[in-house]
Amino acid sequence: MNRKLLLSLLSIIMIISLLSACSGNNNNAANEQPAAAAPKAETKDTPKEEPKEEAPKPVTIKFHHWYDDAIEKFDVVIAEFNKAYPHITVESVSVATNDANGAMKQIDLAAASGEELDVIIVNSPSNYAQRVAIGLLEPLDELMKKDGFNFDNEFALNTGVDGKIYSFPGKLNEFFVLLNKAHLDEAKLPVPTDWTWDEYMDYAQKLTKGEGANKRYGTYFHTWLDYIKLPLFNQMENSNLVKDDGVTSNMDNPLFRKALEIRERGIKDGSATPYADAITQKLHYREQFYNQKVSMEMIGSWMIGESGGSGPIEPTFQTVYAPYPKANAGDPSTTPVGADFISVAAKSKNKEAAYTFAKWFATEGLLVQAKYLTSWKNADIAKLVDGLVSKTPKPELIDKASLQHTLSSMTPQKLYIPVAYQAEVEKAYQTEAEKFLLGDQDIDTTLENAQKAVQALIDANK
User: Are 84 and 356 contacting, i.e. CB atoms less than 8 angstroms apart?
Assistant: First the structure.
């Protein structure tokens, strides 16, 4: 009994010892686990770490145009752009210096051959419409949406084609008349402040002087289409060969007849440089005016700076300015408008960088350039004109009073973006008008043939 009792007691003692050992091991295991770090209390002064933005990757874009970099201050403009966007290098490429239409052909060839194109300046609404139609230009709507840029809030001119924006408007061109102040004084004629085309031709006749090789003509009409639709050129609606609806010929508009009658008068009274001389001698409007071969010209506002010596020809006389002549005395004073079209090439490999430069150029860049008017709504036009004049080599040669009156008295027309086949339509009319200007057919035949040709093109492109 005693032995059994002893064994039982020993068993109980061993079990109790084992349980104690197990309990101790569990506590040690718990103590060996690393304690969780207590969260740090945040205070107002604790700086929060912001994720670091990666620096933009360097990129080079090519900027195709027809301008002289030094004369146009493109070197200054690009240098200023690089201060804001140092990662974008802009290579300026003047493909046909001082020849806008030639540049368009060269750019077309470059695109066809696969040459790298990024930013392109297009020179006219018709060339712009044509390049949109062939897919050369990139629609900017998605890029603007991503950028948060509202086109209508920023620009006065709408460059839309079929509801899409393919370009920012560059320099704004308004049209007016340049007059040689010394020639006006000599003829005892006042600076016009409001006039018609009939009065313009009266001035041209009175300003004409001399005979033969030394003859000074009252005016010069360049070879552009603009000069064979003069009283139509500044109309608010239906100012072109095809009406604003894009499907109807405008050749029955009586202002086309008026346009040819203006030219006819210049031929008959000898007050305008002969058209034959303009084409055979390849005359240029700039040389004719600044070399004092003529006394006045209808031309665009890109010539303001040149009147103060900023262009390739240094003038030696003061230029005064007059509004664009009216078709009829009671008409409102309006002016045709045009613009350079700053576009991104559709096949550019650097579209975002090209977009950034094109947008900056059309806004801040034009103010840096300080050579032209702009349609950017944030620009102070009066200040821009003051700066434009003051920065010319000879600001005293620009009569600022007549310039300010001219710009403030005219209402710019709506920008007309023509049909894609505009170049064909223009050629059809110009071909017939040239026959008239060279004396090969009368006005009636010219208008009748032009109407048929234009309508045939409209029908073919419906």
Answer: no
Q: Parallel, antiparallel, or unpaired: how do β-strands 319-322 and 168-180 relate? A: antiparallel
CB atoms within 10 A of CB 252: 11
- pLDDT recorded at residue 45: 53
Residue 99 CB-density burial (10 A; 0-12 exposed, 13-18 middle, 19+ buried) = middle
Q: Where are the alpha helices (DSSP H) in 85-176?
A: 100-112, 125-133, 141-147, 151-154
Helices (H) and strands (E) in the chain, counts: 19, 13
List the alpha helices (DSSP H) in 217-370.
254-268, 275-280, 285-290, 304-307, 351-360, 366-369
Which among 341, 376, 352 has a CA at the least distance from the CA of 64? 341
Mean pLDDT across 313-338: 96
The number of C-alpha atoms within 13 Å of 164 and in the hemisphere containing its C-beta is: 13
Consecutive H or E run containing 204: helix 197-207
Scan for tokens 């409209």, then name that residue: 458
Which sign, positive or negative, has the C-alpha torsion 64, 69, 71, 72?
A: positive
| Burial profile 329-354: b = 16 or more Cβ within 10 angstroms, e = fewer | eeeebbbbbbbbbbbbbbebebbebb
Q: What angle do CA 175, 176, 180 make, to 5 degrees?
A: 140
Query: Cα Rg for the chain, rounded, in angstroms?
Result: 36
Query: pLDDT digit string (tens) for 6-54?
Result: 334 444 434 334 334 444 443 333 333 333 444 444 454 555 655 666 7
